[in-house]
TrEMBL record:
Every AMP-dependent synthetase/ligase domain range: 8-359
Record Pfam families: AMP-binding, AMP-binding_C
NCBIfam families with a match to the protein in the record: AA-adenyl-dom
InterPro entries: AA_adenyl_dom (IPR010071), AMP-bd_C (IPR025110), AMP-bd_C_sf (IPR045851), AMP-binding_CS (IPR020845), AMP-dep_synth/lig_dom (IPR000873)
Gene3D superfamilies assigned to the protein according to its UniProt record, in alphabetical order: 3.30.300.30, 3.40.50.980, Luciferase, Domain 3
Organism: Streptomyces tamarix
Membrane-spanning intervals of the chain: none
Record protein name field: Amino acid adenylation domain-containing protein
Start and end residues of each AMP-binding enzyme C-terminal domain: 417-492
Amino acid sequence: MLAHELFEARRDLHPDLPAMVWGDRTLTYEELGRDSDRLALALRSAGVTGQPVGVFFERGFAIAVAVLGVLKAGCAYVPLDPAYPDERLAAMVRDSGARILLSDKAILDRIPVPDGTRATALEDLLSAVEDTPRTTAPAIGPDSLAYVIYTSGSTGVPKGVAMPHGPLANLIDWQCAHSSCGTGDRTLQFSALSFDVSFQELFSTWASGGTLVVVDDATRRSCQALIELMNRASVRRMFLPFVALQAIAEHASTVGAWPVSLREVITAGEQLQVSPAVRALFQHLDGAVLVNQYGPSETHVVTSLELDGDPLTWPDQPSIGRPITNAEAYVLDEHLRPQRPGVPGELCIGGPVLAQGYLGMPDVTATRFRTVPGVAGGGRIYRTGDLVELLPDGTIRFLGRLDDQVKIRGHRVETGEVEARLRALPEVADAAVVVRETAAGGKQLVAFCVPAHGARVVASAIRRSLAVHLPGHMIPSSIRDLPSFPLTPSGKVDRKALARRL
């Protein structure tokens, strides 16, 4: 069954159970199902079945209604994060080809939509459709598009990952089978919709009959408020990147406030490190497990490792585990030949877990999605660009990147895109971006800029200019000027020499 069909099955089983809670408000499975049915009918009446639909909302119930309604209409949703700059959001809408942009009235006019796109308030669409018996959804199969999520691009242009239903249905089936959470258990709705983990967060909860606890932005930014919410709402499970887990663990250890109801913490998006604070957190959570999941946006989750038992015995840097059901992992050399266990190589993913590719970018798709004789039964593989090695126990150890890509606060960032934006500024002649690791184990971007002739590089002004084009996680935390860059013998920027200046 596809993800929205799993929701409908649970709606039939327990219509009056809460699908979501937000403060003192509750949305039952039947209420959410009914509103999403009305939206699906409105979209089909507008003739957009099979096409992308923009979804642009602040946190709340409307996100769930929009995502479910779009999928039931046979459309693919395009998540648009209100935290992103308007220009970047407009570029995503143009690139996706969305004919309809769903939003709230309060922020409806924020994005300058292109010709051919209609911005529509969700409440207006719902009020125009009467409650009707459930209608038959259009034919949707595993190859039908479910969403288009945009990631950073090395050329300075975001890339839209076109993900079909099949890989997502496989993921939800696997997640439900390997989670202790079931009917009535509560999962924190922590991830932004633009982060692909949000799909897993939403639908693995609904598919098992659970309840999502919505977190507003103010609470999300406060570790104390987040812990208080989890305790008040009896949250059993949460999905989050390592940097957020570390921040919560540090705060909990400092003040002695523990999210005591937590039993399952799933981290993804960044390399997991079991720090002293993380160990202390799990020593205070009765029997809780820590699950390290790995997967790029082009495949979603493809490997997993569960840590249980005494946290003092957990490794400092756990592996990324083994492939989930139907995912295939290959460690290949630069000629795409299999490497022996213990020999580092590029992690390539096969099996029915791959995205269709990058929307409207066939050349870029062809470089990352390949067919290699003798690998994956001759089917497609996705070249992750991640350096790994296969360990004797069959798990996979993550060793780093083969290129300039990095994860910042769980988001994938191509440093080349940040550099391209810097070079476009009139006061910058050239730019190079490197990564430094913080004491807490997170990562930050540091930009080195060569000033244009007669110009000055002022960090505050550079940041203001970048904020027009780039989301917060892509803006360097430090900006430094240099008269020229150190070069390697081949004439390239010596990034190792720059890193030594950090």
